[in-house]
Design a protein that fits this description.
Chain lengths: ~180, ~140
């Protein structure tokens, strides 16, 4: 009897936690005056655009700004400018690179396209990553220390808690793709 | 006897229910992702000059400009506080001043719109994974 009751209570608690988890997935943004960063006594909090007003209409995410920025750009929800000056050469490069082929985690697919839509080649090459495949040793230790991918991922682009968003390709699939390329 | 048992049970139920609520609140609070993910606080000179530190909201700017505009064309380094920006450079049209000139965006006389952080806030990338991993909550990595 007692065991039944405690079991029931445990289930109830678990349900409450799951409900909380589900509720926590709904994106919400703090008003600037309550974000613990802006000075609520200053004039800016009443004049600047509130995050919720801008971000709630974009494709939702479960981390970072709670916005799928790449999707927002691809689907045209936002049209950010590519250059201020007319003479700027805008370069977009479309080539996926498979990384971490020998690691224990699934293989990383690095999409040049999604990155060069936002960034310029010179932002990463060659001072962060050499262009030649395999020439730069990439490590999670350095990434978690805010270097390499971690310069942006974990600061502005989706955070480093989203492992499977980069480590997304099974080793079998990666082998198949690489064999297809070499043929 | 039965009553007492019932009271104990009720107490136990209340306690567990209470804890569930507490844990649920903590979960919700910790999952509330503030939009200030990626907000950069720049406080190289502000505190010393008696101004509020600058908050640079990445989310606001990336809706209007791609990263490459500032980080390639305008030469912003990927480092909070690492650009040695000052108001002379901005008025000269460098860094923020490339847009904040009254043409593309509001001009420099709107001091308080950028200088909007709580006084004493250290230079940091707010809510960054590194900040969460390394520094205790609310304490940004100091420059």
């Amino acid at each position: 009897m007692r065991r039944g009751l405690s079991g029931f209570l445990a289930a109830l608690g678990l349900l409450a936690l799951m409900a909380a988890g589900a509720f926590g997935q709904v994106p919400s943004w703090k008003p600037l005056a309550q974000d613990d960063l802006h000075d609520p006594a200053g004039p800016a909090v009443n004049l600047l655009q509130q995050p919720a007003a801008a971000l709630s209409v974009l494709p939702p995410d479960g981390a970072g700004n709670m916005v799928r920025w790449v999707k927002a750009l691809e689907e045209g929800h936002i049209q950010p400018r590519t250059a201020l000056r007319q003479q700027t050469k805008v370069q977009v490069y479309d080539k996926d690179v498979l990384l971490n082929l020998k690691g224990g985690m699934p293989v990383v697919r690095f999409p040049h396209k999604a990155h060069t839509e936002w960034l310029d080649c010179s932002n990463c090459h060659d001072h962060l990553f050499k262009k030649q495949a395999g020439a730069t040793k990439i490590s999670m230790f350095r990434i978690l220390s805010g270097e390499q991918c971690g310069l942006c991922h974990g600061a502005v682009s989706f955070p480093l808690t989203e492992c499977s968003r980069c480590h997304s390709v099974s080793h079998a699939q990666a082998r198949k793709e690489l064999e297809g390329q070499s043929r | 006897m039965f009553l007492r048992l019932a009271a104990v049970r009720r107490l136990g139920f209340l306690r567990i229910a209470l804890w569930s609520v507490v844990v649920a609140i903590i979960l919700v609070a910790s999952k509330e992702a503030p939009a200030e993910y990626g907000d950069v606080v720049i406080n190289n000179y502000s505190d010393g000059a008696g101004m509020r530190p600058v908050v640079f909201p990445h989310w606001f700017h990336r809706m209007r400009f791609r990263c490459k505009v500032c980080h390639a064309d305008l030469g912003f380094q990927f480092k909070a506080g690492g650009n040695e920006i000052n108001m002379v450079k901005i008025i000269d049209g460098q860094f923020c001043g490339a847009c904040h000139n009254g043409e593309v965006a509001w001009s420099v006389e709107n001091c308080n719109l950028c200088h909007s952080a709580k006084p004493g806030t250290p230079t940091q990338v707010h809510e960054s994974t590194i900040q969460k991993l390394v520094a205790p909550a609310g304490q940004g990595a100091r420059k």
